[in-house]
């Protein structure tokens, strides 16, 4: 697998640590060559993603019924053997991180595919399952693979590399899955965002630059998957997004990032950080409207949109300090340097303890979950 992939590997040493940034310069020194990679914290310590990914797990649990229904209603098992080389069913999780959520998702997918074979009276033809776990090269694949469930009913392989490029041979995947990963941008949007770390309170030009970058990235993602997924194969994407007819500022992950921004600005006031550092830093996630998603899909043209809808609503508490560190430590460290980590997260703990606010919902401007089910056209 690894030898076949045609990707540009990410080199940590080449990722901008922000030291050379001028005011409002953009933290992509790359042009098109380098893709930014900010994996979740590896290992199994108190700030690891493995120990602090419960909210993503709840979000995926929230759509389990939709996932099961999607497979039962749309998977065509009749032509499986004719579309794959051997009697195997290949599943890939794009942006799987370190577990355990990916194992739960894969399990749900395999159970449901098995059920589909049973319902159709084809149990004797049940294929062997092959599962590919993809994430950036710098993801902690050791911890991921060493935590594989003990009795897993599938062959497993880690596939390092950016999902914005092709990672698998043509027509080799029966089922592509990705949870809360496609919302991550490949690089900072080309925009000047003064005094802010996100677009939720920024002028329109800033959110437009985010939207533009998302469209480019999603296009690359789809172009690659269009080659890899077999005709009739399915793809389920979970992302944070917005209802149609809404502006990026109205629904985003901004409410979760606001306390971080506020702590960083406090540190500027205290003379611990230069404001330039904040001007040149942008969180790399975007929550598109369904319309934005649909437009890129239509332009790609290789997938039938079987479902594109909002997930059942959920309320979400502010990130605990551990959750925030698990998800944001690498991006913060690369831009602001290691020294900022303890003082920043210490301030964050105090700030959220002082707020003790009820969980956030869409009424607070929090993005909604989108459920996207695509079928590769034949
Ligand atoms: N799917 C997991 C993890 C979500 S966190 C879950 O539901 O718990 C988002 C993950 O996407 C991170 O591990 C990050 O490294 C990965 N990611 C972001 N951009 C990526 C890219 N271009 N290629 C591969 N993985 C990417």
Topology at a glance:
Blueprint: H1 54-62, H2 64-74, H3 80-83, E1 88-94, H4 101-119, E2 128-135, H5 141-146, E3 155-160, E4 173-179, H6 204-228, E5 229-241, H7 254-269, H8 275-279, H9 290-300, E6 303-310, H10 321-336, H11 341-355, E7 368-376
Overall description:
- This protein has 378 residues and is an alpha/beta fold.
- It has a single domain (49-355, 364-376), classed as Rossmann fold (3-Layer(aba) Sandwich), CATH 3.40.50.
- Helix content is 36%, strand content 15%.
- The protein has 11 helices and 7 strands.
- The chain has a 7-stranded mixed beta sheet with strand order 3-2-1-4-5-7-6, sandwiched between helices.
- Helix 4 (101-119) links the parallel strand 1 (88-94) and strand 2 (128-135).
- Helix 2 (64-74) runs parallel beside helix 4.
- The longest helix has 25 residues, at 204-228.
- The radius of gyration is 21 Å and the shape is globular.
- The two termini are 25 Å apart.
- S-adenosyl-L-homocysteine binds at residues 39-40, 53, 56, 60, 95-97, 101-102, 134-136, 139, 162-164, 179-181, 184, 186.
- S-adenosyl-L-homocysteine (SAH) binds at residues 39-40, 53, 56, 60, 95-97, 101-102, 134-136, 139, 162-164, 179-181, 184, 186.
């Amino acid at each position: 697998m690894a030898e076949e992939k045609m990707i540009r590997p990410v080199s940590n040493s080449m990722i901008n640590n922000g030291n050379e940034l001028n005011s409002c310069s953009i933290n992509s020194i790359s042009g098109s060559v380098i893709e930014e990679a900010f994996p979740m914290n590896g290992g199994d310590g108190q700030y690891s993603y493995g120990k602090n990914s419960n909210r993503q797990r709840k979000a995926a649990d929230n759509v389990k019924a939709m996932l099961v229904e999607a497979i039962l209603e749309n998977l065509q098992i009749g032509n499986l053997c004719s579309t794959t080389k051997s009697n195997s069913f290949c599943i890939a999780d794009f942006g799987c991180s370190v577990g355990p959520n990916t194992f739960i998702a894969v399990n749900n997918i395999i159970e449901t595919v098995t059920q589909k074979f049973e319902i159709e009276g084809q149990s004797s033809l049940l294929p062997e399952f092959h599962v590919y776990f993809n994430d950036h090269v710098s993801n902690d694949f050791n911890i991921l693979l060493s935590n594989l469930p003990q009795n897993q009913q599938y062959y497993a392989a880690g596939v390092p590399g950016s999902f914005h490029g092709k990672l698998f041979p043509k027509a080799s995947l029966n089922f592509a899955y990705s949870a809360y990963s496609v919302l991550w941008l490949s690089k900072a949007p080309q925009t000047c965002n003064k005094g802010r770390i996100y677009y939720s309170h920024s002028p329109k030009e800033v959110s437009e630059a985010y939207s533009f970058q998302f469209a480019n990235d999603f296009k690359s993602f789809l172009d690659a998957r269009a080659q890899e997924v077999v005709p009739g194969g399915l793809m389920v994407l979970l992302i944070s997004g917005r209802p149609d007819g809404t502006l990026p500022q109205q629904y985003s992950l901004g409410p979760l990032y606001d306390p971080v921004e506020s702590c960083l600005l406090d540190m500027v006031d205290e003379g611990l950080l230069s404001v330039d550092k904040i001007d040149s830093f942008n969180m790399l996630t975007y929550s598109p409207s369904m319309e934005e998603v649909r437009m890129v899909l239509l332009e790609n043209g290789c997938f039938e949109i079987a479902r594109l809808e909002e997930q059942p609503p959920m309320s979400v508490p502010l990130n605990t300090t551990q959750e925030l560190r698990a998800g944001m430590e690498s991006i913060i460290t690369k831009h602001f340097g290691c020294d900022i980590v303890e003082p920043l997260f210490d301030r964050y703990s105090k700030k959220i303890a002082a707020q003790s606010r009820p969980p956030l919902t869409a009424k607070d401007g929090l993005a909604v979950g989108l459920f996207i089910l695509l079928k590769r056209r034949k």
